[in-house]
Amino acid sequence: MPMQPEVSRPWRSSGVQKAWRRLGEPSSTSALVAWIYAPFGFLVALTLDRVIFGGSPWAWLGIAGLGQLAVLGTMPLLGLLLHRFLPSRAWSLATLITFLLVMIARGFVMEVTAVFMGLSSTVDWTHLWVSDVITQAGFLLVIAYRVSVRKEHANRMRMLEGERRELARLDLGLSQKIIELDERLAIQMGLTVEPRLRDIDSELNSVAAGGDPEHLIMSLQNFVDDDIRPMSRYLSEPVKLPPISAIPATKDEVEHISLPSTIVFSRMIWPIPAAVIVGLFTFGQVEWLATVLAALIYAPLLGVIIWLILEAVRRLSGERQVRLWWGVLLTIVLNAAVVAIGAGIVIALGSPTPQSALVRSLMGGALMGVLSAAATVTDVHENRGEEILRRHIEALSAAINVSKQRLWVVRRRLGYALHGSLQAALHVAAMRLSDHRIPNEEVVRSIRADIGAAVSKIKSGANEPCDVIQGCQDLASIWEGTCVVTWEVTPEATEALSASPTASECAIEVVVEAVQNSIRHGKATEVCVSISLTRDRLTVNVLDNGTSKTGVTGLGSRMMDELCVQWARVPLGSGTQLSAELMVG
Amino acid sequence: MTDENRNERSEVPLGELPTDVMWRMALDGTIEFVSSEVYEVRGISAEEAKAQMLEQILTPESAINSAAYMQALAEAASKGEELIPFTGFLTYLRADGSTYECEVQAVPQVGEDGTVKLLGISRGLIT
């Protein structure tokens, strides 16, 4: 696979822009968000000041239930409308407006029901249109963000699993193809080649005894046409992988990931979300029980104090690891304590704060602690799942590269043996028999020996050791006088290549291809080859002083795609550099 | 299938048509290898095909003929007599229950340990 240049995407680094984009996703207005909101809606109703608002908790639970029905009814409907009729660039803003509308609907249903039940004498329109709507829409915003994060994770997992399955299919297919190639050739040898060779052998005997060689010459030609050519044609055809039905699953491995025993404590501290959520949680309550001005002082001030303290704690704790469950407990206590301190400071500064708002602030702090701890543990868990799949993909990619190298080497060697050695031996035999109409025993013995040697070469898989250093030396000799070819192979690479004949043969093919390109197309007069090893990957670098031609693909590029994990040809100021990475199986 | 079609196909060297299935089999009927082209002609993967018994591969009549040939081959091998190759027509069963007629060539091969294996190619006929 050719290497891709890194493309800078500055928007990726902007968390705010990313969060804003997330808000516009269809998942933000899904029924799932409305359902997750339900506990928050009920919690708000249950924490009303009983001295001011009459009615039993059950009555308020019922009212909150009706409010929840309003949320469930309006949110998916409005979401559907906005995604159908508005352009995608307007989705984020439209979603925000949708949240406000949904919460207005919820508040309206709850207020009217409260009046109808005699729990309230009038509808508090200020609270309905301003503070409660802002508080509740804020909850929706946070929920929608988490739903979007989870959806993105689920999509990523689906994509990674799809990629893994595809690679697993390819890996199995390639492994089976390598086995099949050997088996097919063995069967074809047994079915057609060996009987033919036996016939030729007996005909050679009769020719040696003075028989007419004409029929033998014909047999040799038919052998090439009928049996050898189809076999070499099969080897030169594009590889067609067999169908694979059973692909090993990783589902259990991914689904049964144990939670980590320790966690970096600072990851569980979320200063800004904590400030926003606690601020939102208390804003409506203060406005309801005091004034809008009091709410506008209390909530933002509390939020800023929470943010400053939590940010300080987060920085101080650095990368310190704590036991998971201690970390969760500590996070809940920390958030509640910080909110208490913050509320104390705000009150000390003279902010008019109703007592129930203070209670709600503390609840908000504890709730934030639970949420941030749970979300962090979930994130860690999900990231481990993705990591497992990525490791599988990496391992499969490496295995596939090794299989492709093996397949390529086997096909090429057998192709050479069949098309070259055996076919040449048969052609030479036919020519010698034509030249010696009455061949002597020596000629017959020589023909038999040539054919026998070629057949042995095929049966042994045409395995011959391949030495990269020797290959570089040969290359330098071939081009001597035209181009100076120098090379350097690190000791680690030499050791790895001597243990892997396949990688060795592929590496020298890559070097030959690169050097020949440099000289033939780039008119290079100096080429420097370096081969090194990093972990289990071989890096081949070929640097020349020639001109560069990019964008031209041919057989060489296809071969490089087959043999390399990745490769790139980069034009330099005064030459070209080819870099290729190969697995060492 | 017309004679003309059969002749055209018989001119193509064995192993070259996409419907040529190569296989290796022990004399007890165990399939040791079958090429992946089996999927195209029988609708099952090579792994599935390898796991099948002769009765699941061939129609009853063809299975009887095959079994008879292999029994004769086993007897000839035990007596040290010449092992005769098989050339003939066999009818295979497909995954969907339909049948598929093939021209089959099989050659007995004696291994270094003296065991006899059958190497074969089944070439589908145009019907």
Task: Give an overview in words.
The complex is a heterodimer of chains A (585) and B (127). Chain A is an alpha+beta fold and 585 residues long. Chain A contains 16 helices and seven strands. Chain A has a five-stranded mixed β-sheet with strand order 3-4-5-7-6. In chain A, helix 2 (31-46) packs antiparallel against helix 5. The longest helix of chain A has 84 residues, at 125-208. Chain A is elongated and about 125 Å long. Chain B has one domain (21-124): Beta-Lactamase. In chain B, a hairpin with a 5-residue loop joins strand 3 (86-93) and strand 4 (99-110). Chains A and B meet through helix 5 and helix 6 of A and strand 1, helix 3, strand 4 and strand 5 of B.
Name a few traits of the molecule.
heterodimer, A: 585 residues, alpha+beta, Heat Shock Protein 90, 5-stranded mixed sheet, two-stranded antiparallel sheet, 7 strands, 8% strand, elongated, disordered N terminus, B: 127 residues, Beta-Lactamase, 5-stranded antiparallel sheet
